[in-house]
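Sample intake sheet
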Amino acid sequence: KEGAKADAIELYEREHEETGITVAAYVKKHHLPTSMNKSLSVAEKGGWRYAKTRTSILTRASDEEYKQFKRERKRGKVISPFHHMEVELYRAIAQHRKKGRKVSKSFIKITAKKILMEKNHSLKESFKASNGWFHNFCKRKNIKFRKRKSGKRKSGEENLPEVLKFLAYLRHRVLPRREDQAVPPDYTPKWGRYPPERRYNMDQVPLPFVVSQDSTFTTSDDNDIHVKAPSDSLRKRQFTMHLFTNAGKGEARDGYTILVAKGKTDRRKKTEKMAWHKDVPMLFQKNAWVDTAVMRKIAADFASHVKKRHNGLPVLLFCDNLVAHLDEEVKNILAGAGIFLYCLPPNLTETLQPIDAGYGRSVRLAIGRLLDEWLMEEENLAKWEGSMSAAERRVLTTHLVAQATRETMAKDNMRVGCFERTGCLIQMEKTAEADKLITPQGITSVVVVPDTVGDEDDANVQNESQSPEESLRAASDEIYGESSDITKNDVVVEDAVENDDLATEVLCQSWIRIDDGEHEVEDDTCNE
Protein backbone atom coordinates (compact mmCIF):
# COMPACT_ATOMS: atom_id res chain seq x y z
CA LYS A 1 0.00 0.00 0.00
CA GLU A 2 2.79 2.43 0.83
CA GLY A 3 4.37 1.60 -2.52
CA ALA A 4 1.10 2.36 -4.28
CA LYS A 5 0.95 5.77 -2.57
CA ALA A 6 4.50 6.63 -3.52
CA ASP A 7 3.97 5.49 -7.10
CA ALA A 8 0.78 7.53 -7.44
CA ILE A 9 2.47 10.73 -6.28
CA GLU A 10 5.61 10.17 -8.34
CA LEU A 11 3.67 9.20 -11.45
CA TYR A 12 1.46 12.29 -11.34
CA GLU A 13 4.35 14.66 -10.73
CA ARG A 14 6.31 13.23 -13.67
CA GLU A 15 3.36 13.32 -16.03
CA HIS A 16 2.36 16.81 -14.90
CA GLU A 17 5.89 18.05 -15.51
CA GLU A 18 6.14 16.41 -18.95
CA THR A 19 2.63 16.97 -20.30
CA GLY A 20 0.87 19.38 -17.93
CA ILE A 21 -1.84 16.79 -17.27
CA THR A 22 -4.58 17.81 -14.85
CA VAL A 23 -5.48 15.71 -11.85
CA ALA A 24 -8.91 14.92 -13.30
CA ALA A 25 -7.29 13.66 -16.49
CA TYR A 26 -4.78 11.74 -14.40
CA VAL A 27 -7.52 10.02 -12.40
CA LYS A 28 -9.50 9.21 -15.54
CA LYS A 29 -6.42 7.86 -17.32
CA HIS A 30 -5.59 5.54 -14.44
CA HIS A 31 -9.20 4.43 -13.90
CA LEU A 32 -9.61 5.80 -10.38
CA PRO A 33 -13.14 5.96 -8.85
CA THR A 34 -15.33 8.88 -9.95
CA SER A 35 -16.28 9.45 -6.28
CA MET A 36 -13.14 11.58 -6.02
CA ASN A 37 -14.39 14.25 -8.45
CA LYS A 38 -15.52 16.65 -5.69
CA SER A 39 -12.21 16.59 -3.86
CA LEU A 40 -10.33 16.93 -7.12
CA SER A 41 -12.35 19.95 -8.27
CA VAL A 42 -11.56 21.73 -5.00
CA ALA A 43 -7.89 20.94 -5.40
CA GLU A 44 -7.80 22.13 -9.03
CA LYS A 45 -9.39 25.46 -8.16
CA GLY A 46 -6.59 25.99 -5.68
CA GLY A 47 -4.06 25.43 -8.41
CA TRP A 48 -2.14 22.96 -6.26
CA ARG A 49 -0.49 25.79 -4.38
CA TYR A 50 -0.39 23.92 -1.14
CA ALA A 51 1.80 20.83 -0.96
CA LYS A 52 -0.24 19.49 1.94
CA THR A 53 -3.47 19.54 -0.11
CA ARG A 54 -1.76 17.87 -3.07
CA THR A 55 -0.27 15.14 -0.89
CA SER A 56 -3.54 14.42 0.87
CA ILE A 57 -5.51 14.18 -2.38
CA LEU A 58 -2.93 11.91 -4.03
CA THR A 59 -2.75 9.79 -0.92
CA ARG A 60 -6.52 9.41 -1.04
CA ALA A 61 -6.28 8.54 -4.74
CA SER A 62 -3.76 5.83 -3.99
CA ASP A 63 -5.99 4.53 -1.19
CA GLU A 64 -8.93 4.29 -3.58
CA GLU A 65 -6.72 2.63 -6.18
CA TYR A 66 -5.52 0.12 -3.60
CA LYS A 67 -9.12 -0.65 -2.59
CA GLN A 68 -9.99 -1.13 -6.23
CA PHE A 69 -7.13 -3.65 -6.55
CA LYS A 70 -8.54 -5.56 -3.58
CA ARG A 71 -12.03 -5.55 -5.09
CA GLU A 72 -10.65 -6.85 -8.41
CA ARG A 73 -8.78 -9.60 -6.62
CA LYS A 74 -12.00 -10.69 -4.92
CA ARG A 75 -13.66 -10.84 -8.34
CA GLY A 76 -11.06 -13.37 -9.45
CA LYS A 77 -8.70 -11.03 -11.32
CA VAL A 78 -4.99 -11.69 -10.78
CA ILE A 79 -2.85 -8.71 -9.82
CA SER A 80 0.68 -8.83 -11.14
CA PRO A 81 3.44 -8.93 -8.51
CA PHE A 82 5.38 -6.68 -10.90
CA HIS A 83 2.76 -3.91 -10.87
CA HIS A 84 5.20 -1.07 -10.18
CA MET A 85 7.53 -2.21 -12.94
CA GLU A 86 4.62 -2.43 -15.36
CA VAL A 87 3.69 1.19 -14.64
CA GLU A 88 7.20 2.25 -15.68
CA LEU A 89 7.11 -0.08 -18.67
CA TYR A 90 3.82 1.38 -19.88
CA ARG A 91 5.34 4.85 -19.66
CA ALA A 92 8.41 3.71 -21.63
CA ILE A 93 6.17 2.27 -24.36
CA ALA A 94 4.16 5.47 -24.59
CA GLN A 95 7.32 7.62 -24.82
CA HIS A 96 8.83 5.31 -27.46
CA ARG A 97 5.66 5.54 -29.55
CA LYS A 98 5.53 9.35 -29.27
CA LYS A 99 8.85 9.39 -31.13
CA GLY A 100 7.37 7.25 -33.89
CA ARG A 101 9.47 4.22 -33.06
CA LYS A 102 8.35 0.61 -33.31
CA VAL A 103 7.61 -1.24 -30.09
CA SER A 104 8.31 -4.92 -30.59
CA LYS A 105 7.84 -7.93 -28.35
CA SER A 106 11.60 -7.95 -27.79
CA PHE A 107 11.52 -4.28 -26.76
CA ILE A 108 8.84 -4.93 -24.12
CA LYS A 109 10.59 -7.95 -22.63
CA ILE A 110 14.08 -6.44 -22.56
CA THR A 111 12.85 -3.12 -21.18
CA ALA A 112 10.92 -4.90 -18.41
CA LYS A 113 14.09 -6.70 -17.32
CA LYS A 114 16.07 -3.45 -17.39
CA ILE A 115 13.53 -1.68 -15.18
CA LEU A 116 13.66 -4.45 -12.58
CA MET A 117 17.45 -4.40 -12.57
CA GLU A 118 17.56 -0.60 -12.18
CA LYS A 119 15.06 -0.67 -9.30
CA ASN A 120 16.92 -3.62 -7.75
CA HIS A 121 13.55 -5.31 -7.31
CA SER A 122 13.45 -8.25 -4.92
CA LEU A 123 11.87 -10.42 -7.64
CA LYS A 124 14.32 -9.52 -10.39
CA GLU A 125 15.92 -12.96 -10.33
CA SER A 126 12.59 -14.78 -10.65
CA PHE A 127 11.26 -12.61 -13.51
CA LYS A 128 11.67 -14.48 -16.81
CA ALA A 129 9.63 -12.21 -19.14
CA SER A 130 7.72 -15.27 -20.29
CA ASN A 131 5.14 -15.27 -23.06
CA GLY A 132 2.41 -15.75 -20.46
CA TRP A 133 3.47 -12.61 -18.58
CA PHE A 134 3.74 -10.73 -21.89
CA HIS A 135 0.19 -11.51 -23.00
CA ASN A 136 -1.26 -10.77 -19.56
CA PHE A 137 0.61 -7.45 -19.42
CA CYS A 138 -0.79 -6.40 -22.80
CA LYS A 139 -4.27 -7.35 -21.63
CA ARG A 140 -3.94 -5.48 -18.32
CA LYS A 141 -2.59 -2.32 -19.93
CA ASN A 142 -4.73 -2.49 -23.08
CA ILE A 143 -1.67 -2.66 -25.34
CA LYS A 144 -2.67 -3.34 -28.94
CA PHE A 145 -0.68 -4.76 -31.85
CA ARG A 146 -1.55 -2.60 -34.84
CA LYS A 147 -0.39 -2.15 -38.40
CA ARG A 148 1.26 1.01 -39.66
CA LYS A 149 -1.19 3.26 -41.55
CA SER A 150 0.32 5.52 -44.12
CA GLY A 151 -6.24 -13.85 -54.85
CA LYS A 152 -5.89 -16.73 -56.69
CA ARG A 153 -8.43 -17.52 -59.43
CA LYS A 154 -9.04 -21.04 -58.07
CA SER A 155 -9.53 -22.27 -54.55
CA GLY A 156 -7.49 -25.09 -53.06
CA GLU A 157 -10.36 -27.53 -53.48
CA GLU A 158 -10.68 -26.63 -57.16
CA ASN A 159 -6.97 -27.34 -57.61
CA LEU A 160 -7.20 -30.73 -55.87
CA PRO A 161 -7.16 -32.79 -59.12
CA GLU A 162 -3.88 -31.15 -60.20
CA VAL A 163 -2.42 -31.67 -56.72
CA LEU A 164 -3.32 -35.38 -56.80
CA LYS A 165 -1.82 -35.70 -60.28
CA PHE A 166 1.42 -34.15 -59.05
CA LEU A 167 1.61 -36.40 -55.98
CA ALA A 168 0.79 -39.54 -57.95
CA TYR A 169 3.46 -38.81 -60.55
CA LEU A 170 5.99 -38.08 -57.80
CA ARG A 171 5.25 -41.36 -56.01
CA HIS A 172 4.93 -43.68 -59.01
CA ARG A 173 7.32 -42.17 -61.55
CA VAL A 174 9.97 -40.01 -59.86
CA LEU A 175 10.82 -41.96 -56.70
CA PRO A 176 11.08 -45.57 -58.03
CA ARG A 177 14.37 -46.82 -59.44
CA ARG A 178 14.93 -46.92 -63.19
CA GLU A 179 15.95 -50.06 -65.01
CA ASP A 180 18.65 -48.18 -66.91
CA GLN A 181 20.10 -46.50 -63.80
CA ALA A 182 22.30 -47.75 -61.01
CA VAL A 183 20.57 -48.23 -57.69
CA PRO A 184 21.74 -45.62 -55.14
CA PRO A 185 23.45 -47.19 -52.11
CA ASP A 186 20.84 -45.76 -49.73
CA TYR A 187 17.83 -46.78 -51.84
CA THR A 188 14.91 -47.98 -49.68
CA PRO A 189 11.36 -49.10 -50.49
CA LYS A 190 10.15 -46.31 -48.20
CA TRP A 191 11.87 -43.29 -49.75
CA GLY A 192 12.95 -44.64 -53.12
CA ARG A 193 15.81 -42.89 -54.88
CA TYR A 194 15.52 -39.69 -52.86
CA PRO A 195 15.67 -39.91 -49.04
CA PRO A 196 14.68 -36.75 -47.08
CA GLU A 197 18.21 -35.33 -46.90
CA ARG A 198 18.42 -35.35 -50.72
CA ARG A 199 15.08 -33.63 -51.33
CA TYR A 200 15.58 -29.90 -51.72
CA ASN A 201 13.44 -26.89 -52.49
CA MET A 202 14.55 -23.52 -53.83
CA ASP A 203 12.56 -20.31 -54.07
CA GLN A 204 12.93 -16.55 -53.91
CA VAL A 205 11.67 -14.33 -51.09
CA PRO A 206 11.71 -10.53 -51.52
CA LEU A 207 13.44 -8.65 -48.70
CA PRO A 208 13.24 -4.92 -47.97
CA PHE A 209 15.86 -3.33 -45.77
CA VAL A 210 13.16 -2.04 -43.42
CA VAL A 211 11.75 -5.48 -42.66
CA SER A 212 8.90 -6.21 -40.20
CA GLN A 213 8.65 -2.55 -39.21
CA ASP A 214 5.03 -1.97 -40.26
CA SER A 215 3.39 -3.07 -37.00
CA THR A 216 3.92 -1.92 -33.45
CA PHE A 217 2.50 -2.29 -29.97
CA THR A 218 1.07 1.03 -28.84
CA THR A 219 -1.34 2.61 -26.41
CA SER A 220 -5.09 2.72 -27.06
CA ASP A 221 -5.09 6.53 -27.57
CA ASP A 222 -2.34 6.44 -30.25
CA ASN A 223 -4.24 7.06 -33.49
CA ASP A 224 -1.32 8.18 -35.67
CA ILE A 225 0.50 4.88 -36.16
CA HIS A 226 3.84 6.22 -37.34
CA VAL A 227 7.03 4.12 -37.33
CA LYS A 228 10.32 5.77 -38.26
CA ALA A 229 12.63 4.34 -40.94
CA PRO A 230 15.85 5.54 -42.63
CA SER A 231 13.89 6.09 -45.84
CA ASP A 232 10.42 5.16 -46.99
CA SER A 233 11.85 3.74 -50.23
CA LEU A 234 13.77 1.16 -48.16
CA ARG A 235 10.43 -0.43 -47.22
CA LYS A 236 10.32 -1.77 -50.78
CA ARG A 237 12.37 -4.68 -52.14
CA GLN A 238 16.09 -4.04 -51.78
CA PHE A 239 17.21 -7.68 -51.90
CA THR A 240 15.95 -11.05 -53.01
CA MET A 241 16.75 -14.06 -50.83
CA HIS A 242 17.27 -17.19 -52.90
CA LEU A 243 16.63 -19.95 -50.37
CA PHE A 244 17.76 -23.57 -50.47
CA THR A 245 16.62 -26.09 -47.86
CA ASN A 246 16.23 -29.85 -47.60
CA ALA A 247 14.03 -32.18 -45.54
CA GLY A 248 16.82 -33.73 -43.45
CA LYS A 249 16.97 -33.61 -39.67
CA GLY A 250 19.91 -33.23 -37.32
CA GLU A 251 23.25 -33.67 -39.07
CA ALA A 252 21.39 -34.40 -42.32
CA ARG A 253 19.84 -30.92 -42.46
CA ASP A 254 21.19 -28.66 -45.17
CA GLY A 255 20.35 -25.26 -46.58
CA TYR A 256 21.67 -21.78 -47.14
CA THR A 257 20.68 -18.40 -48.56
CA ILE A 258 22.07 -16.39 -51.47
CA LEU A 259 21.34 -12.65 -51.49
CA VAL A 260 20.66 -10.81 -54.74
CA ALA A 261 21.14 -7.07 -54.20
CA LYS A 262 20.38 -4.06 -56.36
CA GLY A 263 23.28 -3.09 -58.59
CA LYS A 264 24.40 -3.44 -62.19
CA THR A 265 27.76 -5.06 -61.55
CA ASP A 266 29.81 -6.32 -58.65
CA ARG A 267 32.00 -3.26 -58.12
CA ARG A 268 32.07 -3.25 -54.35
CA LYS A 269 35.17 -2.38 -52.36
CA LYS A 270 37.25 -5.19 -50.95
CA THR A 271 36.77 -3.85 -47.41
CA GLU A 272 33.00 -4.14 -47.79
CA LYS A 273 33.20 -7.66 -49.20
CA MET A 274 35.36 -8.75 -46.30
CA ALA A 275 32.68 -7.43 -43.92
CA TRP A 276 29.93 -9.53 -45.52
CA HIS A 277 29.00 -12.68 -43.63
CA LYS A 278 30.93 -15.62 -45.04
CA ASP A 279 27.82 -17.86 -45.14
CA VAL A 280 25.77 -15.50 -47.32
CA PRO A 281 27.02 -15.14 -50.92
CA MET A 282 25.86 -11.93 -52.60
CA LEU A 283 25.08 -11.36 -56.28
CA PHE A 284 23.93 -8.21 -58.03
CA GLN A 285 21.16 -7.42 -60.49
CA LYS A 286 19.86 -3.97 -61.38
CA ASN A 287 16.41 -4.68 -59.87
CA ALA A 288 17.46 -7.33 -57.32
CA TRP A 289 15.65 -10.00 -59.37
CA VAL A 290 16.73 -13.54 -60.10
CA ASP A 291 16.99 -13.36 -63.88
CA THR A 292 18.59 -15.94 -66.14
CA ALA A 293 22.14 -14.63 -65.77
CA VAL A 294 21.89 -14.59 -61.99
CA MET A 295 20.21 -18.00 -61.91
CA ARG A 296 23.09 -19.56 -63.84
CA LYS A 297 25.51 -18.38 -61.15
CA ILE A 298 23.20 -19.66 -58.41
CA ALA A 299 22.88 -23.04 -60.16
CA ALA A 300 26.67 -23.35 -60.44
CA ASP A 301 27.07 -22.56 -56.74
CA PHE A 302 24.41 -25.09 -55.71
CA ALA A 303 25.82 -27.77 -58.03
CA SER A 304 29.24 -27.35 -56.41
CA HIS A 305 27.65 -27.52 -52.95
CA VAL A 306 25.75 -30.73 -53.78
CA LYS A 307 28.84 -32.46 -55.22
CA LYS A 308 30.77 -31.84 -52.01
CA ARG A 309 27.95 -32.86 -49.69
CA HIS A 310 26.40 -35.86 -51.46
CA ASN A 311 29.33 -37.25 -53.45
CA GLY A 312 27.47 -37.67 -56.72
CA LEU A 313 24.30 -39.28 -55.29
CA PRO A 314 21.07 -38.18 -57.03
CA VAL A 315 19.31 -35.11 -55.62
CA LEU A 316 15.69 -34.03 -56.19
CA LEU A 317 15.18 -30.26 -56.39
CA PHE A 318 11.65 -28.83 -56.35
CA CYS A 319 11.11 -25.39 -57.87
CA ASP A 320 8.43 -23.22 -59.46
CA ASN A 321 8.12 -22.31 -63.13
CA LEU A 322 10.16 -19.10 -63.06
CA VAL A 323 11.58 -18.45 -66.54
CA ALA A 324 15.12 -18.49 -65.16
CA HIS A 325 14.58 -21.98 -63.68
CA LEU A 326 13.62 -23.36 -67.11
CA ASP A 327 16.75 -22.08 -68.84
CA GLU A 328 18.55 -24.91 -70.67
CA GLU A 329 21.97 -23.94 -69.36
CA VAL A 330 20.65 -23.87 -65.79
CA LYS A 331 19.24 -27.39 -66.20
CA ASN A 332 22.47 -28.63 -67.74
CA ILE A 333 24.51 -27.22 -64.84
CA LEU A 334 22.26 -28.93 -62.31
CA ALA A 335 22.10 -32.20 -64.25
CA GLY A 336 25.89 -32.33 -64.29
CA ALA A 337 25.82 -32.61 -60.49
CA GLY A 338 23.11 -35.30 -60.47
CA ILE A 339 20.35 -32.85 -59.57
CA PHE A 340 16.89 -33.73 -60.90
CA LEU A 341 14.97 -30.45 -61.36
CA TYR A 342 11.27 -31.06 -60.77
CA CYS A 343 9.02 -28.11 -61.60
CA LEU A 344 5.80 -27.71 -59.62
CA PRO A 345 2.49 -27.24 -61.49
CA PRO A 346 1.76 -23.62 -62.44
CA ASN A 347 -0.38 -21.57 -60.03
CA LEU A 348 0.11 -24.12 -57.24
CA THR A 349 3.35 -22.94 -55.67
CA GLU A 350 1.55 -21.67 -52.54
CA THR A 351 0.02 -25.12 -52.17
CA LEU A 352 2.92 -27.41 -53.04
CA GLN A 353 6.15 -25.50 -52.39
CA PRO A 354 7.70 -26.12 -48.93
CA ILE A 355 9.34 -22.69 -48.75
CA ASP A 356 5.96 -21.04 -49.37
CA ALA A 357 4.37 -23.30 -46.76
CA GLY A 358 6.11 -21.52 -43.88
CA TYR A 359 9.88 -21.78 -44.15
CA GLY A 360 10.36 -18.57 -46.16
CA ARG A 361 8.08 -16.60 -43.85
CA SER A 362 9.91 -17.96 -40.81
CA VAL A 363 13.24 -16.74 -42.18
CA ARG A 364 11.84 -13.29 -42.86
CA LEU A 365 10.20 -13.05 -39.42
CA ALA A 366 13.47 -14.08 -37.81
CA ILE A 367 15.24 -11.28 -39.69
CA GLY A 368 12.67 -8.79 -38.39
CA ARG A 369 13.11 -10.01 -34.82
CA LEU A 370 16.90 -9.81 -35.07
CA LEU A 371 16.60 -6.29 -36.46
CA ASP A 372 14.42 -5.33 -33.48
CA GLU A 373 17.08 -6.67 -31.12
CA TRP A 374 19.80 -4.82 -33.04
CA LEU A 375 17.81 -1.59 -32.64
CA MET A 376 17.76 -2.03 -28.86
CA GLU A 377 21.30 -0.65 -28.77
CA GLU A 378 21.29 3.15 -28.54
CA GLU A 379 24.18 3.49 -30.96
CA ASN A 380 22.43 1.35 -33.56
CA LEU A 381 19.13 3.20 -33.10
CA ALA A 382 20.87 6.54 -33.62
CA LYS A 383 22.47 5.22 -36.80
CA TRP A 384 19.11 3.85 -37.98
CA GLU A 385 17.33 7.16 -37.45
CA GLY A 386 20.27 9.12 -38.83
CA SER A 387 21.84 7.84 -42.04
CA MET A 388 23.34 4.56 -43.17
CA SER A 389 25.34 4.11 -46.35
CA ALA A 390 24.37 1.47 -48.89
CA ALA A 391 27.47 -0.53 -47.96
CA GLU A 392 26.52 -0.50 -44.26
CA ARG A 393 23.03 -1.68 -45.13
CA ARG A 394 24.39 -4.56 -47.21
CA VAL A 395 26.81 -5.65 -44.49
CA LEU A 396 24.11 -5.54 -41.81
CA THR A 397 21.68 -7.48 -44.02
CA THR A 398 24.14 -10.31 -44.67
CA HIS A 399 24.67 -10.82 -40.93
CA LEU A 400 20.94 -10.71 -40.16
CA VAL A 401 20.17 -13.17 -42.98
CA ALA A 402 22.96 -15.54 -41.89
CA GLN A 403 21.75 -15.69 -38.30
CA ALA A 404 18.08 -15.95 -39.30
CA THR A 405 18.85 -18.81 -41.72
CA ARG A 406 20.87 -20.62 -39.07
CA GLU A 407 18.09 -20.30 -36.46
CA THR A 408 15.32 -21.32 -38.88
CA MET A 409 17.28 -24.28 -40.23
CA ALA A 410 17.67 -25.58 -36.67
CA LYS A 411 13.88 -25.88 -36.29
CA ASP A 412 13.67 -29.35 -37.79
CA ASN A 413 10.03 -30.01 -37.00
CA MET A 414 8.85 -26.80 -38.64
CA ARG A 415 11.06 -27.15 -41.71
CA VAL A 416 10.42 -30.84 -42.32
CA GLY A 417 6.73 -30.24 -41.61
CA CYS A 418 6.63 -27.88 -44.61
CA PHE A 419 7.82 -30.74 -46.84
CA GLU A 420 5.30 -33.13 -45.27
CA ARG A 421 2.29 -30.82 -45.58
CA THR A 422 2.95 -30.06 -49.24
CA GLY A 423 3.55 -33.70 -50.17
CA CYS A 424 7.15 -33.14 -51.28
CA LEU A 425 8.21 -35.68 -48.63
CA ILE A 426 5.76 -38.30 -49.86
CA GLN A 427 6.83 -41.91 -49.34
CA MET A 428 7.03 -44.43 -52.15
CA GLU A 429 5.08 -46.91 -50.05
CA LYS A 430 1.47 -45.92 -49.51
CA THR A 431 0.53 -45.87 -45.82
CA ALA A 432 -2.45 -44.15 -44.23
CA GLU A 433 -0.32 -42.83 -41.36
CA ALA A 434 2.17 -41.14 -43.70
CA ASP A 435 -0.38 -39.85 -46.22
CA LYS A 436 -2.48 -38.15 -43.56
CA LEU A 437 0.42 -35.72 -43.05
CA ILE A 438 -0.19 -34.34 -46.56
CA THR A 439 -2.39 -31.31 -45.87
CA PRO A 440 -1.72 -28.64 -48.53
CA GLN A 441 -2.84 -25.10 -47.81
CA GLY A 442 -6.41 -24.37 -48.87
CA ILE A 443 -7.42 -28.03 -49.16
CA THR A 444 -9.73 -29.15 -46.38
CA SER A 445 -10.71 -32.58 -47.70
CA VAL A 446 -8.62 -35.68 -47.07
CA VAL A 447 -5.89 -36.10 -49.71
CA VAL A 448 -6.06 -39.60 -51.20
CA VAL A 449 -3.17 -40.14 -53.61
CA PRO A 450 -4.19 -42.32 -56.60
CA ASP A 451 -2.67 -45.80 -56.71
CA THR A 452 -1.59 -45.39 -60.32
CA VAL A 453 -0.76 -42.67 -62.80
CA GLY A 454 -3.49 -42.10 -65.40
CA ASP A 455 -3.15 -43.30 -68.97
CA GLU A 456 -2.69 -39.77 -70.23
CA ASP A 457 0.29 -39.40 -67.88
CA ASP A 458 1.91 -42.74 -68.70
CA ALA A 459 3.82 -41.13 -71.54
CA ASN A 460 5.62 -39.07 -68.91
CA VAL A 461 7.82 -41.96 -67.83
CA GLN A 462 11.43 -41.04 -68.56
CA ASN A 463 12.43 -41.98 -72.08
CA GLU A 464 15.65 -43.98 -72.23
CA SER A 465 16.83 -42.02 -75.27
CA GLN A 466 16.40 -38.67 -73.52
CA SER A 467 18.67 -36.96 -71.07
CA PRO A 468 17.23 -36.43 -67.56
CA GLU A 469 16.65 -32.74 -68.38
CA GLU A 470 14.86 -33.49 -71.67
CA SER A 471 12.67 -36.16 -70.13
CA LEU A 472 11.78 -33.86 -67.25
CA ARG A 473 10.81 -31.07 -69.60
CA ALA A 474 8.77 -33.52 -71.69
CA ALA A 475 7.03 -34.82 -68.57
CA SER A 476 6.22 -31.34 -67.35
CA ASP A 477 4.97 -30.31 -70.80
CA GLU A 478 2.74 -33.37 -71.01
CA ILE A 479 1.17 -32.89 -67.59
CA TYR A 480 0.98 -29.13 -67.29
CA GLY A 481 1.07 -27.88 -70.86
CA GLU A 482 3.96 -27.11 -73.20
CA SER A 483 5.90 -24.10 -72.06
CA SER A 484 7.17 -23.69 -75.62
CA ASP A 485 3.62 -22.72 -76.64
CA ILE A 486 3.63 -19.67 -74.37
CA THR A 487 3.06 -16.54 -76.41
CA LYS A 488 2.75 -12.93 -75.49
CA ASN A 489 -1.01 -13.41 -75.22
CA ASP A 490 -0.68 -16.02 -72.46
CA VAL A 491 -0.71 -15.07 -68.82
CA VAL A 492 2.43 -16.57 -67.30
CA VAL A 493 2.21 -14.74 -63.99
CA GLU A 494 1.65 -17.53 -61.49
CA ASP A 495 1.82 -15.91 -58.08
CA ALA A 496 -0.81 -13.69 -56.50
CA VAL A 497 0.01 -9.99 -56.89
CA GLU A 498 0.11 -8.46 -53.44
CA ASN A 499 0.81 -4.81 -54.25
CA ASP A 500 1.57 -2.45 -57.07
CA ASP A 501 5.34 -2.67 -56.61
CA LEU A 502 5.27 -6.45 -56.88
CA ALA A 503 2.94 -6.18 -59.88
CA THR A 504 5.50 -4.03 -61.67
CA GLU A 505 8.26 -6.52 -60.90
CA VAL A 506 6.19 -9.49 -62.09
CA LEU A 507 5.04 -7.80 -65.30
CA CYS A 508 8.60 -6.88 -66.22
CA GLN A 509 9.42 -10.60 -66.38
CA SER A 510 6.37 -11.63 -68.42
CA TRP A 511 4.10 -11.12 -71.36
CA ILE A 512 0.56 -10.43 -70.28
CA ARG A 513 -2.70 -9.47 -71.96
CA ILE A 514 -5.16 -7.18 -70.23
CA ASP A 515 -8.71 -6.27 -71.19
CA ASP A 516 -7.97 -3.00 -72.96
CA GLY A 517 -5.30 -4.41 -75.30
CA GLU A 518 -1.85 -5.92 -75.44
CA HIS A 519 1.01 -4.26 -73.61
CA GLU A 520 4.55 -5.40 -74.23
CA VAL A 521 7.05 -4.95 -71.42
CA GLU A 522 10.52 -6.15 -72.31
CA ASP A 523 13.30 -7.23 -70.02
CA ASP A 524 16.24 -9.61 -70.24
CA THR A 525 13.98 -12.56 -69.49
CA CYS A 526 11.19 -11.73 -71.94
CA ASN A 527 12.86 -12.99 -75.09
CA GLU A 528 13.22 -16.40 -73.52
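Comment: The chain has 19 helices and ten strands. Residues 458-528 have pLDDT under 50 and may be disordered.
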